[in-house]
Amino acid sequence: MVQQRLKNKALLRVEATINIPIVFHIVMQNPTVVTEAQILAQLDTLNKDYAGLNGDSVRIPSYFKSLYGKSEINFCLAQRTPDDEPTSGIVRTITTKSTFSNNDNESVKHILLGGADAWDPTRYLNIWICDMADDLLGYATFPESGPQDEQGVVIDYGSLPGGSLTGYNGGKTMTHEIGHYFNLYHIWGDDDGACTGTDFVDDTPNQANSTSGCPSGMQTDACSPSAPGFLYENYMDYSGDNCLVMFTVLQVARMEAAVDLYRSSLLTSNGCTPVNLQDYDAQTRFINKPAHRICDPSFSPSVTIFNKGAVTLTSLVINATIDNGTVVTTNWSGSLPSLTSAVVTLNSITTPSGNHVLTVYTNNPNGVLDQNLSNDTLSTSVMYFPSGTPPLSESFEGSVFPPEGWDIVNEDELVTWKKITGYAKTGNSSVYKDNIHDNLSGQRDYLRLPTLNLGTADSAFISFQVAAAVYSDPSSASNPFDTLQVLVSKDCGQTYTSIYKKWGSSLITKQGATTDEFFPTSSEWRKDSIDISAYLSQGEILLAFENTTEYENNIFLDDINVRTVKVNPNLKEKGYLVTPNPTSGQVTIQFYPQPTGLRGIVIYSSSGQKVAETAIVTGQANNYYTYDLGRNAPGIYIIRALFNDKTITRKIVLVR
Q: 150, 177, 394, 550: which one is catalytic?
């Protein structure tokens, strides 16, 4: 391909100029530090460097002038977004991260990790400008390397024209890195002076190693020991910006061949073509509310409308329907200039119980026909089930997941809670969060129960079986671990209160570091229980399990139960009850409320012989204890409950 291009460039495309749309993502804590003038100066530097029109080319020594390459590659600022809206080609993103490292390439390129998402890499050359760590100037993706949504170039903002990096602030870093993007390697072949490496270009002199600073005159080394020496003036060296002045003829041919072989979709991109706005184009951009779960069958949707037309929008008809049924219409009026948006609350609509689809669509902008119908309609799923009452029990044995009335909130739309068979505390199924394969730190995923009204019982509890492991040493105090929380919401999931939070050593059921993917055995489960009595008589509540991932290991849940307890009136009055009395064998000792300071229970015969005893660990007392006295002789027995500060004694009669 390179040789063919050298013979006749025109054979390879209809137009000689290769136009490459660029979008600059400025990702910094203060992205306004990078000015528009710097971006335009950088673009000018790129175009001059690649076209061989750079004024500093006068520094090319006479003995290298025959190698001077001039490409047909031209860079233009994007004029339209991937959604075909006007843009300047410069996108500023505020981040909380102070610096970005090339060892964490994903961070700057993904909004969920503190960076900015790439625009369609088949249509744009994405360039991320940020504050780089470790004195690094930049890096790039070679053709056919790395994920598609990470293709492009990353550079330090100080390397832009007029930047803070003295000696490297002429814009040549970007020239160099885009060379990599178009398949050029370092001119010295990255062989640490062995003279056996290659940059796969035949007209660049063999070179021992990279150049630093800005030499002058002819330079020789072990790989090019005689005149004319090596080409430190080449953009693919590490010389200072004042020294970098040229590509070679074959480097240009290699880059242009790379465009055709690997980046050919850029040739047909309309990214640099300005958007021709229609006069009347109203877009339904987002359905803001409701979220998937609603707790009232009647609700008022909230939508964002966008005026993609050239004429100021003053009126619009917005329609909403459930499952394409009855249409509820909202007539909006206002003043929405071109390319601006507004949030509109729609008239109330009612949904039946179950899972449904809400569709919102617009028409009649300013009373005329919308000239672009393709962006008028959006749909979202909604779920409504009337609130239930305890008991609620779920072991995930059914064929449908999530079970009816349950839902999942997956913030990053990637790895989330899912059902698994073959691993369970009871039955054959459970639910788990695959944290060992979820490397997006800090992402939250919610498994939410049906809404419940706990009513007016005396107490209420949620219990569940959990199995968990960690990849790292669980004793490490500074390590960020996966975290499991149980949350409760009184406003249908808009806000939550945490009632249970465990991670690391407090959560795991398999001790030590587990570096293989964790799947629990029958003995690697633990039952946890939470008192939720505070939410009795509080109306409708929503309980949820929240997993926050830190790339550790899997967490499993099974046998989730919500129950309420009504206490015998006599027990509530006395606080301690022994039943039945008389008894033919079984006897239950009950406490209300949960006993504190209870150390043990001892049962004696009337002659003083101990017939039963339970020692109780501090903080682990239950509300009731059951004993079977059926093997003992009939008669009177003495039951003593031993507390830290008192002893309660009751008599019971055993009969046949």
A: 177
